[in-house]
Amino acid sequence: MTAILCPYCQGPIADSEQSIVCSGCETPHHQDCYEENNGCTVFGCKCAPPEEPKLSISAPDLMNTGAAVATAPALSTAAPPILAPAPPPPPPGRAMTNEELQQIAYRVVPSIFSPYEDNSAIAAASEQSVQPGEPKNRMGFMILGALLGPFGAHNWYAGYHKKAAAQLAITVLTLGFGSPMSWLWAIIDICTIDRDSSGVQFSS
């Protein structure tokens, strides 16, 4: 025997349960389901509850609503800037004297805020560093290069110590076999170099 189903809850209607038969379509329902729906649950039945009124929106109202949403200010998702805490106020106390402020200024910028210091030693040292040394003799440079060029004597004389050490190393490490190369290098030096390592031009 097939059980009768309630169209509202889709559950079987037992004989022991209270049921009600719709007078319009003669469809059995659970009494609770019929009362909860306020009538028959079959679509199109005359005993079904009346439909709720539908909300109607006209086109102008819909356009006004869209414009209001478009002009509404967007919520900012950026985090608010973190402001640095204000520095604490200085502790109460006596005001600094002019001498203390002057000492602090001397430590920060001694070259500007030191009018009372003796700068004669600094000026003398700077003058000595700027003043060029005595010029070397070009004839002595050429003679050393021609005679002792493989040992870098001319470069030692002119102050080019790195070049002199390189020429001496070539001659010594090759047991004299590389001396022609060092001597050729020395000939090129005496033909092209006219100043010492400090930039002072050779004297004639």
Helices and strands in order:
Blueprint: E1 19-21, E2 28-30, H1 31-36, H2 59-71, H3 98-108, H4 120-130, H5 138-148, H6 153-158, H7 161-173, H8 179-192
Antiparallel strand pairs: 1-2
Helix pairs in contact: 5-8, 7-8
Mind explaining what this structure looks like?
Among the domains are: 1-51, 2-Layer Sandwich (Herpes Virus-1), CATH 3.30.40; 138-192, no CATH class. The chain is built from eight helices and two strands; from the N terminus they run E-E-H-H-H-H-H-H-H-H. With 204 residues, it is mainly alpha-helical.
Notable characteristics:
mainly alpha, two-stranded antiparallel sheet, 42% helix, 3% strand, Herpes Virus-1, 204 residues, rod-shaped, 8 helices, single chain
- Residue windows where pLDDT falls under 50 for at least 5 positions: 111-117
Overall average pLDDT: 74
Alpha-carbon distance between the termini? 138 Å
Strand order of the largest sheet: 1-2
Tally of helical runs: 8
Task: Give the helix/strand class.
Answer: mainly alpha
Question: Sheet bearing the most strands, described?
Answer: 2 strands, antiparallel
The beta-strand count equals 2
Question: What is the 3D shape?
Answer: rod-shaped
